[in-house]
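Sequence, structure tokens reproduced for reference:
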Amino acid sequence: MKTTVKRWVNSLAVRIPKAIAVESALDDGAIVDVKLVGRTVVLIPVRTRQHRLQDLLAGITKDNLYREAETGPPMGNEAW
């Protein structure tokens, strides 16, 4: 599939056709890593890891559990 490189202020931009965006699971605002391999430009989607609360809680042990922190007496209108 061919597309055109366009100037965008001081940079160049390429529009990603919808079919490729859908197939690669890219959406508006997606972060990609841009690499140059030889003279070939490669875009690699950066996938953020999704954390589940139950998995995070399962990682808590008595050795890595923090105690309450004392922050001093109430100030203002806090109700303790």
Summary: The mean pLDDT is 90.
